[in-house]
Design brief:
Blueprint: H1 2-23, E1 31-39, E2 46-54, E3 59-68, E4 78-94, E5 98-121, E6 126-150, E7 154-166, E8 171-183
Antiparallel strand pairs: 1-2, 1-8, 2-3, 3-4, 4-5, 5-6, 6-7, 7-8
């Protein structure tokens, strides 16, 4: 009998949570987490796991980053960490479970990677690396983005703008990004 009452209590709690989240509006969720990528032709990139937070109704931030390391290859460390500061320009809701917002973003970040020269050795069947040097660059960017929210908890960001990287391997160019996030 105790197991049955515990089962009904758990089912009741899950139902209350589910009904409250269905009745909530998309803009009621200030946090989101997901995967994201921002890149362009002849321009720097940023990608990885992303966390977004709206601090007020108009101001927010998001951070993203990744680390890649392969111990079987020399010169194989690559990382990227960046933060975007957001200013919400317009927001609208379509019904109870769908909405969108337009925002501007300003990005700062750091990109580090191993830079080396590799030559294939036919006798050993392996690459030989020389001039291994770790390089770090500062990233900066500016642009606009749309956040399309559906089913209250899912969002698809679409961003575009210009981003550059300096002082090593200076680049500047148009970037486009998208991903998928869970809102809570």
């Amino acid at each position: 009998m105790k197991n049955v009452s515990k089962y009904f209590l758990v089912m009741f709690a899950i139902s209350v949570i589910a009904i409250s989240s269905v009745a909530a509006e998309p803009s009621a969720f200030d946090n989101s987490v997901g995967v994201y990528g921002l890149a362009g032709i002849n321009s720097p990139y940023t990608a990885g796991v992303q966390f977004q937070r709206w601090c007020t109704n108009r101001i927010g931030f998001q951070t993203q980053g990744y680390v890649y390391y392969d111990s079987s290859i020399k010169a194989s460390l690559n990382y990227n960490v960046s933060a975007q500061f957001l200013l919400k320009l317009f927001e609208t809701e379509f019904g109870e479970r769908t909405g969108t917002c337009l925002y501007s973003w300003l990005l700062v970040g750091n990109h580090g990677y191993d830079d080396s020269t590799s030559v294939y050795n036919e006798t050993t069947g392996d690459y030989e690396y020389s001039n291994v040097e770790f390089v770090t660059n500062i990233q900066a960017g500016i642009g606009f983005g749309f956040d399309i929210m559906f089913l209250n908890h899912l969002s698809v960001p679409i961003e575009f703008g210009y981003m550059g990287e300096f002082p090593n391997d200076m680049t500047w160019g148009f970037v486009f990004g998208t991903g998928i996030r869970y809102r809570f």
